[in-house]
């Protein structure tokens, strides 16, 4: 396999793992204002306290792969999107500090609640804006440093769409990890967010196809749409299955309460696949392919042992951590 393609796939894997894993714990913060009864917010914090920092490993890993394997793309993206990237990082910092101080505070706890919720929402929104701006094809480079070309109606819409998607993941995660009123409330929110997320996916897809000639040709020229039609069809089927399981109220739910989360994850995977289909082989649409952005083969070979060691290692300790903390979140302990 070509080394540049290999690193492109590794980068895609890291991005998807980050979106899936950090997506649901950012979503917990987005849902925070809708859980305000006694003990509910403590429960939400405990549900992710053992995984939130490990989930962000994938953000660091993806940044390292982009920097080392595709430096031209890293430079263009970092220069052009400096403001939203820094805003996202500051939001993640405030959110992380809130984890450490909230359980130790008394009178200042409401401020840490705000830091956690606002930090989660801002980080998710910035990630959505970055996605929208890159898909839209914002010019990158030194000449774009002081501009706000990335701030468009489309990028703002994708920002809110990503927030809705992360909140859907979080609602499904709470449905899986909670009991009683919190589980019922998570199911209710999950159904609403599922409709919003599917609607947003449709709007973003239509908007992109209508405005991007290259993507429209990729999907609709010749028999391409026939071959690619399983993506939207499966997406709708998965959405219906997720709705069905969130809407169940029977003893059968106990055996299947984890399925809505995996259906929501599948929605993200299908959306990611559709994005790759439309943009491949570009890292920056219509400007820079992954082959053009790649480091020299000597550098890629130098990186290879580290990638081969650390990707399985990160996957192993992530799986082990989730296995150790499998099951319902219990609220009898103090702190986290």
UniProtKB/TrEMBL annotation:
Residue ranges of the TM segments: 6-35, 81-99, 111-134, 154-176, 192-210, 222-241, 261-280, 300-320
GO cellular component terms attached to this protein's record: cytochrome complex; plasma membrane
GO MF assignments: electron transfer activity; oxidoreductase activity, acting on diphenols and related substances as donors, oxygen as acceptor
Pfam families the UniProt entry points to: Cyt_bd_oxida_II (PF02322)
Keywords for this protein: Cell membrane, Membrane, Transmembrane, Transmembrane helix
Topological type in the membrane: Multi-pass membrane protein
Protein localization: Cell membrane
Gene Ontology biological process terms, A to Z: aerobic electron transport chain
Protein family (similarity comment): Belongs to the cytochrome ubiquinol oxidase subunit 2 family.
Protein name (database record): Cytochrome d ubiquinol oxidase subunit II
Organism: Marinomonas hwangdonensis
């Amino acid at each position: 396999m070509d080394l540049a393609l290999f690193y492109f796939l590794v980068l895609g894997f890291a991005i998807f793992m980050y979106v899936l894993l950090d997506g649901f714990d950012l979503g917990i913060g987005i849902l925070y204002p809708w859980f305000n009864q006694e003990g509910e917010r403590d429960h939400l914090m405990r549900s992710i306290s053992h995984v939130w920092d490990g989930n962000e490993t994938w953000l660091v890993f993806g940044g390292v792969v982009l920097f080392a394997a595709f430096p031209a793309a890293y430079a263009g993206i970092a220069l052009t999107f400096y403001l939203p990237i820094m805003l996202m990082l500051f939001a993640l910092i405030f959110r992380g500090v809130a984890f450490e101080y909230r359980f130790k505070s008394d009178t200042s706890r409401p401020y840490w609640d705000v830091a956690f919720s606002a930090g989660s929402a801002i980080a998710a929104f910035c990630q959505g804006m970055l996605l929208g701006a890159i898909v839209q094809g914002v010019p990158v480079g030194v000449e774009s440093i002081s501009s706000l070309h990335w701030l468009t109606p489309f990028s703002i819409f994708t920002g809110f769409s990503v927030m809705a998607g992360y909140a859907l993941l979080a609602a499904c995660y709470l449905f899986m990890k909670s009991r009683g009123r919190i589980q019922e409330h998570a199911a209710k929110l999950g159904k609403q967010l599922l409709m919003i997320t599917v609607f947003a996916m449709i709007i973003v897809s239509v908007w992109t196809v209508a405005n991007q000639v290259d993507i429209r040709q990729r999907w609709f020229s010749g028999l391409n749409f026939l071959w690619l039609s399983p993506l939207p069809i499966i997406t709708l089927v998965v959405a219906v299955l997720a709705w069905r399981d969130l809407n169940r109220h029977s003893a059968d739910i106990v055996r299947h309460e984890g399925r809505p989360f995996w259906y929501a994850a599948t929605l993200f995977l299908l959306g990611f696949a559709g994005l790759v289909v439309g943009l491949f082989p570009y890292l920056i649409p219509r400007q820079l392919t992954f082959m053009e952005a790649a480091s020299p083969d000597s550098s890629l070979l130098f990186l290879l042992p580290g990638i081969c060691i650390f990707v399985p290692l990160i996957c192993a300790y992530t799986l082990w951590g989730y296995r150790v903390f499998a099951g319902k979140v219990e609220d009898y302990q103090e702190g986290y």
